[in-house]
Fold:
Amino acid sequence: MKVKHILFFFFFLVSPFLTIRAQVPLISNISAPRQVVSEGGSVALAVETIGGAARYQWRRNGVAIQGATASEFKISAASLLGDAGWYQVVVSGTSSVQVSDPVFVVVASKTGLVSFGESPRGDTKVPVGLSGVCGIAIGDDSHSVAFRSDGSVVAWGRDDYKQSTVPPGLSDVVAVSAGGGHSLALRSDGTVIAWGNNSQLQSSPPVDAKGIVAIASGTNHNICLRRDGTVVAWGSNSHGQCNVPPAATNIVAIAAGESHSLALKADGTIIGWGRNENGESVAPSAARNTAAISAGGYHSMALRTDGTVIAWGYNGAGEASVPVGLSSVVAIAAGVNHSVALRADGSLVGWGEKADGRIFFSGAPLAKYVVAGRYQTTILAPAVAPTFTSMPVQSQTVFTGQSLSLSVRVSGLPEPTYQWERNGVAIPGAATAAFVRTITGASDAGSYRVKVENVAGVVYSRASEVYVLPSSYISNLSVRTSIGAGQKLTVGAVVDGAKAILVRAAGPSLTAFGLSGVLDPSLELFGGNGAVLQVNDDWDLSLAPVFASVGAFAFPSNSKDAALNRIIDGPFTVQAKGDGGVLLVELYDVAGGVAPRLVNISARNRVGLGADVLIAGFTLKGTGAKTLLIRGVGPGLNQFGLTGTLSDPRIQVFDSANAVVVSNDNWDPSLATTFSSVGAFALPTGSRDAALVTSLRAGASYTVVVSGGNNGTGEALVEIYELP
Structure:
């Protein structure tokens, strides 16, 4: 029995059906397919395996990364050009090799787009506020497509085939490409989304367009690189540009021209196919040790590992004539008829077609990324916080019904966004550098400023104080008359709030206008409660600038005229007196018609015969017309205990040409409700007072003359009220 057991055990050990083999390492997990890292930040890519011992080799864009031989690969300070791309790890065992799914690393940088050149279709006009761009492509017929760090896509420029109309819900994008009239987007799951012109089926990816890691578009065709290093192409095949040759294996980069295609092999050599009328598809022998390729309209470019550039193909505009001595290049871009190189220091060098400025980079910011199209070159440059080169005016006075216009000029990258505010509250729809609105009324007055923002910072303009005037308003009152010794000229007004009012009593200074018999005046200012607010006998020289600001004539520096300037709230009265003679009293709204305003003015004095009448002058500023209530009151003053009143006053309104505009002798009872609406005291029924309502053109001066009918004399009051 023992012998049988031993033989059975020996058979078990040597039986080929029961041989135990070494375990093979298998990839069980890898980092998520889309990794976003801020420029200068770090990100770790990791792979997990099961089974036996494994060796690791990480690749970027199909090329092995020196020293990256651990299960984890860390990018410690990510850069846009040096680290963005697709990564794979090769896991090897003693008898097996497995390549991981790709991981796309997106480097989010605070950059802005800058375009050079002039496109007739608008693709050089970068959308305002566009930020977070990580990659961009330009079609050869004037449209641009960009993907952002959040995986979204934005497009602009020509849209006749809807090539700039991004499909709704497109997300998780890691690369974009633009053809003549179509666009492509690559998602992190290796699928391709296409839209736009489909006349050559260029917007219909084939079923085998899976596992894609890179995309490129010609005018009407596309080529895509699969994760296994093979290439798939579709669309127009007019020149064989979609006939991928069998030699297109171990490919690490692709490019598409107008009707030709290029592929870069892992060994640094280039193969091409498609149109070759200008030699664009056949790389010269110098195209070796290649790090990157680019295809233009009818020419091609290669960047070598030593930082030098070669170009071949059509050279009608010099696009294939690389500048002598060009070195330290880190990226290349072939446009339809021009070429651009980005150097390690961020500077740009361009050659070829230059009529529209697509290769003039004088003063250009340092670039991080470059692409070229038919009419322009576009770069990603470091973001610059917005700064103001011009500010809105510090203050502005606008009439109701007129247009308020405020604007700023700002520098910054990317182009910043704007938001105007009134009193700290955002104004809906006010989102450009210029703010223009039609003023509807006093509610539009306030403090305006604009918030300007881009990814690099936020700034606010200085505040612009906007004062709103009614479409027309009373800006001043002047009363000229003669008074005897001991008499007083009383002038009153109402301000609907606190406001600076300039009051002047001119006597000696009137001699400059040919008047004689003037007096030496003094002023007393009373509040609505009858309290004395201020007095003045001889004016202060410090008021001269105030005179000038309201357009009042100057007083001689040593004159004995009187003046005062005070903030007044509500009704007030001014009394002017002297030793007898000719006198002019004036009231001026110092700040103009901004709220609060002078809403009514009045003057009371004795009316005599001939030239010795009560004359009140006023100015209407603004635009359009102003409706006024004007009254000449004599008998109506008796109800206040005043005696010696003018029994039958009449009023005449003259324009600046001394023509009578309107007049009245006895008031119409229908005006009683108008009196009440403006707070004017009622006139006794049947009194012989005068009153009228008239609409007068703004921007002119007027004079109201109160005289007595039948050569009557006595105390009279002239009043002028604004009506709604």
